[in-house]
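Structure tokens please, single chain.
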Amino acid sequence: MIIGIPKELKNNEFRVSATPSGVHALVQAGHQVIVESGAGIGSAITDSNFISVGARITESVEDLWREADLILKVKEPLPIEYPRMRKGQVLFTYLHLAASRECTEAIIKSGTTAIAFETVEINGQLPLLAPMSEVAGRMSIQVGAAALQKPAGGRGVLLGGVPGVAPAKVVVLGGGVVGVSAATMAHGMRADVTILDLDLNRLRYIDELFAGQVRTIASSAFAIQEQCMAADLVIGAVLVHGAKAPKLVSNDLVSKMRPGSVLVDVAIDQGGCFEGSKATTHSDPTFKVHNSLYYCVANMPGAVPATSTAALANATIKYALAIANKGWQGACADDPALARGLNAHEGEIRYQAIATAHGL
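Here you go.
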């Protein structure tokens, strides 16, 4: 099989979909790998690094898409890439189609076979989303702490406080991988941390994990309002597998929050969990809603590519090899987890939550 690895085009997206180790594994299995020149530079991987393990470098992204049977990417195709997709080709990447009617329609029109990292599922777990959720969760505190500084438009609060001065109050909505990763960082920085989740068993686990040092509260509209109004930093960390995120924080609630408070919406890839959320970029990451500051960058891990690329490639190479070795149908037949990743094939949506989101 011919595998194509194009350069990512999203704003300030420096990740690449494979490392030299992964390319080596694909080549050793008898496959051809074509890498767009410069695709790995942002992740400190040079063309020569890829060449040394058997990849072919091309200057022409059009040739890469035309030749490849399997396209390995990190982020969803952008409009400039829509015409490059075709029937008979497999696209394996993060797609988040429930949040994008435009991309969904482009994939339907192309007839491509689209398998999404974020819907590959094993026993309720998302193994290809988890590494980036860990990165995004930890980053949410990092960027939130920076946004809380007065020059950035925040309240001028130091996350961990100092002796004699209370720390910032951090509220995390959602106790999944993102939420626990965010809480871990915030707690490590000595903030006052509260996690809300609907699952009481998950809250018990979190309580034990942090030895009671992170507050856990059963989520409800009342609890969310009460906690957000007292918060300096709110992390939106909710996820419904493959579907649009629920809107948990209304603009009316934000109007009652502390002036200069910061809201980081990690669920923005799935449409966001705050009513006022809209996707932003690393070059222009924040905007104001009432007197609060929103951070809604849709590819947060792209800012730390040396870490993110390695973490993502470690998780995806197993599945990429299976698709290359067996074809997408054989790989999905042998692995129910990968089969759940199938979002579209030959103009038809194959994932219920996406169809529901767009009325298809």
